[in-house]
Amino acid sequence: MASSLSDKFNRLRHSPSFWALGDQGVLSLGTFASNILVMRAYDQRREEFGTYLLLISIIALLNNLHASVITYPLSVKGATTDNNGLRGLAASALTLTGFLSLPMIATVFVAAALLHSVALAPFVAISVIAWQCQETTRRALMAHLRNNEAVWGDAVSYLGQATIIFALCWHGRIPPLWEIFTAMAATSMAATVVQMIQLRVPRSNLPDALHLAGEGWRIGSWLLVTNGLNLLTIQMITWTINYYHGREAVAAFGMLGNVIGVSHPVMFGICGLIVPGVARARANGDEKSAIRFAVKLILIGTGLLLPYYLFLVLFPDQALRIFCKANSPYLALSNELRWYVAQYVFVYLAFVTSALLNGLEAGRWTFIGQLANAIVSAVFRIPATAMIGLGVSAAIWSGVFTYGAQLIVNLRGIFKVAGRKLPNPVQVLETSNNGSAPRNQVPDAIESNGALRKRLRVLVSAYTISPKRGSEPAGAWNVIIRLSTFHDVTVIASSECEGADYRNETVAYLRRFPVDGLTLHYVAPPTLARKLMKPSGTLARLFYYVGYAAWQREAFKAAQDLHAQQPFDLVHQLNMTGYREPGYLWKLQLPFIWGPVAGACNMPWSFLQTMDGKERLFYGIRNITNSIQKFTSLRCRLAARAAQLIWYVGPDEKALIERTWGTPRTEPMLDSGTSPMPRPPTDYQRQRPLRLVWSGVHIGRKGFPLLIRALAQLKDLPIEVIVLGSGPQTERWDTLASELGVVGRLRWTGRLPREQALAEMAKSDVLVFTSLMEAASHVTLEAISLGLPVICHDACGMSIAVDDRTGIKVPLVNVQTSIDGFAAAIRKLAENPAELLRLSEGSAQRAKELTWDANVEQMCLAYRRVLAAPCPIGRPVPTLDEVVADEFEATGNVQP
Predict the structure, then answer these.
(1) DSSP state of 119
(2) Are strands 518-523 and 790-793 parallel, antiparallel or unpaired?
(3) What is the pLDDT of residues 206-246, one digit of tens each?
(4) pLDDT on residue 460
(5) Complete DSSP assignment for 634-658
(6) Mean pLDDT (the chain, rounded)
(7) CA gap 326, 330 in Å, rounded
(8) DSSP per residue over 592-615, as a string?
(9) Is the pLDDT of residue 768 over 60?
(10) How many CB atoms lie within 10 A of CB 665?
(11) Sheet strand arrangement including 488-494
């Protein structure tokens, strides 16, 4: 029995929930004790206590705004990163807190001036900044559920301030308010130091802080507006009471808040567990499990709160006597206390459902719920508080309706979010081990309908296609020739790409090796496309998509003519994979499929330091415009809504399509595939240098300087690197290699024909792929096709293509983490030939799972499902401005 109890206690002691509630208990106990001590000290000076409460409400407003743009993004991002990443995030968050201090201080001085208490402003301002610093380090620890560590700093801060205030009030002394705010500031700063030591916070750098600011705005903007509305609503109630009923009424309102505040440890502890817990579950792709996790916590919180709330309702007089002095005027507020309990039932449910939505990154619904609260407050609660003579009573009982409205909207949002994972006509098939849907799982509606088993007429938009090139042209080619085996495929393509003639080489190839079922229709780029679609490496890339859109308009005109001549069954926007250009084929009022879609991720800000000035400017502007464009591109939204299915490459694209555009009809698919080319597994016995190969266009986002700097850490190892490709950064990279003393390890091949490049890769032991922003990367899959282990970033499509059998993935956190990660991975393989052999064999096996055939089989089954699904084909397409009519030249069909 004793052993069983001991085991239970040990399990409880190691439970994150136990420490989360304990930590929140320390926070709330300290806050509660401080407020009670101040309230009792100022029992007969209620006007000054009202001033204290109004200043505290301003602090709460500023702290919640800080939470929206800094600590909430820190919680969400920190929950899914490792310890090094968490430390970097904490340093960046503290830097941003410093940047926000000036507007915070200005707000404090304005509020103090309105209360005729400017002398208090400096002490209040210092306590605000100190509290926000401590809350930042606290939330960083909580993001990894390290509440057992956070509790020590919180004890210093919250219990410490209560202890100091108790000492200041010793023997009935009434301390001036500046002493109280100074105590808050001192203990908060001491706690910040404690938690920074626990985190081992490094020195921050500006690019990382700016990156977190961008991420904070991306995922916290809705919460910022939501919290702004929330705090504005609360402030309006408090200040309305002050304006119409005086500061003594504010004091009474605050006293009742102190009594009900005993429930805050449970309420905020549960909310603090819900956000990172749900974020972690959601990061694993399971929103329903995330919701079940939150419901379990909500029920636990309900069980803990219920006894106290019942005590306040059944015995309000006894409760007030516990908190107030014997002759206190507050003892007459028993009915108001009962109403406060009724309000707080709805407050608790509204808060926990908002936390659930925030964890799901469904901040828009949290905002709508808070907006409902604000509207009911503006229309009903504030007028009731102002005009009804009851004052405090009206402010309390009317809150039942405001938080009730918020709860209803939150529940609606949760049901909507949960509905995103429900089956739909395009998501009914399970995939087999090779990534394709097995043929015996085709829906009955397709098998029973003989008409759907015939060859379809499919129109594909593939701007760039070639059997002689790599990357996008090769990707489109590999898809098209396989699709033509099953369907009659007409491809609309550009006759040239960035000045290169793709048409002649493709037609020449097809004349030698005809492909039945394939028709190519070339559309020449208009003048605007020729001028703006410049080769990589210049700032003209900022206008690349303007030119690409011009070509898409010409392609749409050609598609209309082809469809009029002989109707198609289905259209597919295949490439290029960037989400920002969906083309115009969705306006043909045919079943429309789009993808694979990529390009939603931003360039990590801290990596801009590895690039030259032009590229820093380009990617900085791209990050900003990309973040804006994802929310504002009307044509992308219309295309997404018209699509029966969209394939996405990575998690950023999935989030964009499903949450921002509101289109749940999605499936994952890499933008490339493997063509297994068996070769003997890598045989490296440390009797020669380890041969690494790197391949790509020599531009900044490929990240080659990371490998150069990693090599500088490995001068004790025999290593040689084959550098494939060329580009505008070649000379700069060669100079860097010379400066770091590794130039002798590099062999620059320049740009090679694809066959020669593959031959160079086949001679190598490992592909090191340092790219910072890709889809899946054709180079990665070509290496896997050769059975070559891969070292790459754990980001974008690479995180899906490369698994633990295939290679080593380096966290994409900051420059130094990447350099150290690549160096460690290379060292591991150089010193452990058995591990290199294991990854080589695993890579060969992985190649069989990611073949082009598997991708195309998945496409063909999707075509059938879309046509079998009861979707309203031919429905009106949402109106856009008419397509600009430019003169264009399109060649006739090229029959292979």
Answers:
(1) G
(2) unpaired
(3) 666 666 666 555 555 555 555 555 556 666 777 677 777 77
(4) 92
(5) HHHHHHHHH-SEEEESSHHHHHIII
(6) 77
(7) 10
(8) EEEEEEB--SPPPGGGGGGS-HHH
(9) yes
(10) 21
(11) 518-523, 488-494, 457-462, 570-575, 592-597, 645-648, 666-668
| Beta-strand relationship, 666-668 and 807-810 | unpaired
pLDDT at 395 > cutoff 60: yes
Phi, psi of 459 (to 5 degrees): -105, 125
Using a 10 angstrom Cβ sphere, with 0-12 exposed, 13-18 middle and 19 or more buried, the burial of residue 89 is buried
Whether the predicted pLDDT of 3 surpasses 80: no
Rounded-to-integer distance, Cα 884 and Cα 896, Å: 33
Distance in angstroms (rounded) separating the CA atoms of residues 584 and 602: 25
Calpha distance 726→722 (Å, rounded):
12
Per-residue pLDDT at 178 exceeds 70: yes
Q: Which residues pair with 501 in a beta bridge?
A: 496
pLDDT tens string 464-503: 888 877 667 877 888 888 888 889 999 998 877 766 777 8
The secondary structure of 169-198, three-state, reads CHHHCCCCHHHHHHHHHHHHHHHHHHHHHH
Cα separation, 436 vs 360, in Å, equals: 29
| CB environment 3-13: b (16+ within 10 A), e (fewer) | eeeeeeeeeee
- Cα dihedral value 375, 376, 377, 381, nearest 10: 150
Q: Would you call 535 exposed, middle or buried from its count of C-beta atoms within 10 A (0-12, 13-18, 19+)?
A: middle
The residues with which 492 forms a beta bridge, in sequence order, are 461, 521
Q: How confident is the model at residue 16 (pLDDT cuts 50, 70, 90)?
A: low
Closest CA to 196 of 94, 298, 345: 94
Structure-derived torsion over alpha carbons of residues 769, 771, 773, 779, reported in degrees to the nearest 10: -40
Residue type, 464: T
pLDDT tens sequence across 80-129: 667 777 777 888 888 888 887 888 888 888 888 887 788 888 898 888 88
pLDDT at 228: 56
**Residue 363 C-beta-side C-alpha neighbours within 13 Å:** 22
DSSP string, 563-595: HHHS--SEEEEEE--BTT---SGGGGSS-EEEE
Which tokens hold the place of 237? 């109630």
> Cα–Cα distance between 17 and 610 in angstroms, integer?
42
d(CA 850, CA 864): 21
Residue 116's CB is within 10 A of a number of other CB atoms, namely: 8
pLDDT at 448: 33
**Amino acid in the structure at residue 218:** R
pLDDT bucket at 701, cuts 50 / 70 / 90: confident
Instruction: Express each pLDDT in 661-700 by its tens digit.
Output: 878 888 888 877 777 776 777 777 777 888 899 888 888 8
CA 177 to chain centre: 42
Compute the distance between CA of residue 732 and CA of residue 745 in angstroms, rounded to an integer.
Answer: 16
Residue 144 in tokens = 């990894």
Tokens of 833: 């030939």
Euclidean distance between CA atoms 645 and 641, whole angstroms: 9
The yes-or-no verdict on residue 879 having pLDDT over 50 is no
- DSSP, collapsed to helix, strand or coil, labels residue 808 as strand
Q: What angle in degrees, to the nearest 10, is found between the helix axes of 264-283 and 121-143? A: 50
pLDDT 10s digits, 570-626? 999 987 667 778 888 888 889 999 988 887 888 888 888 888 878 888 788 877 877
Cα–Cα distance measured from residue 170 to residue 29, given in angstroms and rounded to the nearest whole number: 19
Residue range 533-561: mean pLDDT, rounded: 73
Question: What DSSP assignment string belongs to 127-158?
Answer: HHHHHHHHHHHHHHHHHTT-HHHHHHHHIIII
